[in-house]
Amino acid sequence: MSVPLREALKFWAKLGFISFGGPAGQIAVLHQELVEKRRWISERRFLHALNYCMLLPGPEAQQLVTYIGWLMHRTWGGVLAGSLFVLPSLFILIGLSWVYLTFGQVPWIAAIFFGIKPAVTAIVLHAAVRIGKRTIHNQALRVIALMSFLAIFVLNLAFPIIVLCAALAGIWGGKRYPEYFQQTGSHGNGSEKRYGAALIDDDTPTPEHAQFSTKKLILQSAVVIALWSIPFVALTLLFGWQTLYPQIAWFFTKAAFLTFGGAYAVLPYVYQGAVDQFHWLSAGQMMDGLALGETTPGPLIMVVAFVGYLAGHIQHLIGNTNPFWFGVLGACVATWFTFLPSFFLVLVGGPVIESTHGKLSFTAPLTAISAAVVGVIANLGLFFAYHVFFPHGLGGSISWVSIAISVFAGLALFKFQKGVISVLTGSALAGLLSYLVTSLLI
Q1: Whole-number mean pLDDT of the chain?
Q2: Does residue 80 lie in a domain region?
Q3: CA 404 to CA 388: how far, in whole Å?
Q4: Rounded to an integer, what distance in angstroms lies between the CA atom of residue 297 and that of residue 310?
Q5: Is 16 part of a structural domain of the chain?
Q6: Cα 404 from Cα 362, distance rounded (Å)
Q7: If you placed Cys at 418, which of 75, 92, 180, 422 could pair as Cys (CB 3.0 to 4.6 Å)?
Q8: How far apart, in whole angstroms, are the C-alpha atoms of residue 109 and residue 106?
Q9: pLDDT band at 80 (very low <50, low <70, confident <90, very high)
Q10: Is residue 150 assigned to a domain?
Q11: Residue 198 pLDDT
Q12: Which domain range does residue 321 map to?
């Protein structure tokens, strides 16, 4: 018995509109729907795919959707599943980006974003804890997570170096201390559960289309190269190599291949390039973009659409009657060149991964990498906290209102288990209330 492609596509389309909460929340939704309710895939097969996607650079939730879609319905199943997960968020963010630039300086709207920024800080730290509970289950993995945090926070090491070191630690540890690097087969609570037989169960043979083929590898590689080079060459011929859109395409291609650890780990890299290097937008606008990304469905890394839209809109603001379409082009270019490598890595690497079930030599480095990712995300939370709590740098004034909002957002997330949307709504209202009180006192 198998799931018809039409039924699967209906679910993937629905998922694109309901997958809120960033990578942690989206993976939890996927687990609940596919492992617990629908029984399309078993717990162990789900976690095996998840660990591979966490190894890859790029957005792990979208890659996981692509992987499962491919496993169930071949290449087109994976492409359609991954695309339907992204497209709703792209259209929504294009609209929100236009609203942000058009009305963002209105005082009460600015006050709403002022309240949302501290909540984003709490959400990122909460994500680090949630992912940590799912991946860190012994002292050795805690040490790897701590060393990862110190490596990026103190030494400012690049993400690929941290991932490589974690993988090497996993390879060595898997041979010397295998009990510390075994996959737990759990999802968030530290104990394996059984939900009954699944369509793709622990012992289900790998389907024929998911087995490695040199011919298929060459064909898929050629298709992806064409899908990358044709639009890139077209943008270069239309606008020139040193202009905005080829720069967006090249930058986000590098981001797709060089940033490990999922969406939260990608953000510092995007921040450094978009804000510090190219000056496409400001640090405050980047934080606002992340807030919008958190409040919309789909992968959190869709913040790249916000960055691309602002870059195109702002650069063509002068001398053009309607810069909206330049922003739309920027958003589409950023999205295309960010996600194309993800499809390639999943479809090409999937057959290799499907042959590694239960092999500690493979799972041990992935387990170590998963632990290292927790340290990277924790660093990102502190990165945002600095910009929110000290908006003018350490030498400037402290935003006590932001600290208070962040503390209450953290309590709502950690203690009262409130959802991301509820927390962001409450924080937005707090920012608006702060603005009203300040206006009355002046």
Answers
A1: 84
A2: no
A3: 11
A4: 20
A5: no
A6: 44
A7: 422
A8: 5
A9: very high
A10: yes
A11: 77
A12: 87-188+213-441
